[in-house]
Amino acid sequence: xxxxxxxxxxxxxxxxxxxxxxxxxxxxxxxxxxxxxxxxxxxxxxxxxxxxxxxxxxxxxxxxxxxxxxxxxxxxxxxxxxxxxxxxxxxxxxxxxxxxxxxxxxxxxxx
Length: 111
Hints:
Layout: E1 4-7, E2 10-13, E3 18-24, E4 34-39, E5 46-51, E6 57-59, E7 67-72, E8 77-82, E9 91-97, E10 100-101, E11 105-110
Parallel strand pairs: 2-11
Antiparallel strand pairs: 1-3, 3-8, 4-5, 4-9, 5-6, 7-8, 9-10, 9-11
């Protein structure tokens, strides 16, 4: 069974940075694409960034230039570096592989 465990969320001021981590158990790491989503209560889930099994990155327009997705095969971990954060980035962030989701980590950006 695949397990994903996010960490790194927290409270940060506008313009600050956070790095989210997602540790992936099992041998599936990087066999499949990794995705970061985020969700605000009452709003639709939003795709933030994708890292394909071939290493290609893609981003939602709203985070392009500010967020960076990367992976460490040796640690079976995918990261989301978030810079120049704004209050609009406040959400619960989830990492996803295939149909498996992590528990989410809260990111709060204060004005």
